[in-house]
Amino acid sequence: MKIRVTTRADLFEERKQQHIERGYRIEDERPIPVNGLCSFMAVKEEPASDPLGEVVAQALNGRRGSHGGY
C-alpha cells in the first residue's frame, strides 16, 4: 500500500517518524515546502497471504470449509 502524506513544513520530520514507527518505508521525500506543504510517500508491504481475508472470502462465497459439504 502506498500513500502520499502531505504535511506542514514544521511537522514534516515528525510525520515521517510516525509512519516509520508504524512499519512504513519512506520514499519520494519532498522536504522543500511548496505553499507551506511538504510531502513523502509512505509504503507498506502487504503480506503475501491474509488468513483472515481468505476465511472472509470463503464465507462470502458460500463455502463452508472441509465439513463434508452439508
Short description, anyone?
The model has no long low-confidence stretch (mean pLDDT 86). The chain is built from 2 helices and 3 strands; from the N terminus they run βαββα.
Proportion of residues in extended strands: 25-35%
Major β-sheet annotation: 3 strands, antiparallel
Please give the count of helices. 2
The CA-CA distance between the termini, in Å, is: 39 Å
Q: Please, what is the average pLDDT? A: 86
Question: Which sequence of SSEs, written as H and E, runs from N to C?
Answer: EHEEH
Based on CA atoms alone, the radius of gyration comes out at: 20 Å
Shape: elongated
Report strand order across the widest sheet: 1-3-2
What oligomeric state best describes the polypeptide chains here?
A: single chain
- Count of strand segments: 3
Structural category is alpha+beta
Low-confidence stretches: none
Description:
A three-stranded antiparallel β-sheet has the order 1-3-2, covered by helices on one side. The protein is α+β, with helices and mostly antiparallel strands. It is built from two helices and three strands, in the order βαββα. Helix content is 29%, strand content 34%. The radius of gyration is 20 Å and the shape is elongated.
